[in-house]
Amino acid sequence: SRPRTRHKSQLSIASPSLSQRPRFEVNGGSSFQTELEWRQMTSVWRATDLRQRTVRRLSEGRRCFYAYLLHGLIGAVVMPGCAWVRAQAQHRSEECERLCSQADQAQEAGRVAQADQLLDRAMKKSPRDLEVQRQLSDSLWQVGRYRESLDLLTRLAEEHPHDRRLSMTLAERHAELEQYDAALGWLQPALKTEPVSPGALKLKATIESAQGRDDAALFTYQKLSQIDGRQAEAQLQMGRLYLQRGQPERAAPLLRSVL
Known about the structure:
By secondary structure, this protein is mostly helical. It contains eleven helices and no strands. It is about 75% helix and about 0% strand.
């Protein structure tokens, strides 16, 4: 028997004409118009989509597996290793603190050579604790190793820019060495943080007076006296400066308040 064929109208309903089908262009120009090309391209797209979904599932599985391995590695190796590192750092800090205390005792007893040796050992410990490093700097300063003390303090101040005590200590020690410009430079952060600090203002006035800047020193002493009227040294220094300027009538009440 002859094979049955669809009516032309049925065929047109089942398979829309090529002119009605959407045109798909890839690589900037290739188009598909025939039934065969349409079906081939559709199968390629389906296979590609299936392959991409499979790759995504495998990638997610690998990520989970690697995350599990990493978690196990951190728990088994990294965390105990970090604890060991912290314990070693703590031990070095404690050893450094002990050696600094022994160096201070040796310095007070006049055993300068022994104090130097103890401080050499303390510096080799390379402590990371801030207070221990501050103590090491103080001990170095006490035995006259000024450069090492200042270098250590400078590094600490750069690592901890908001620690006002470090900048104040640096300003005091530079002033003690008559390095006034450096002292004022380190004093500025302290005054910026606390503009009415009596200690910082007193040091500033002392430096200005040592530099021969009497007007600036007098102004700073006046500000200090306004903040804290019990500053006997400020009253005394203002009286001295007024006498130098030939104003005994202004110096007298200030000097009487001190006596």
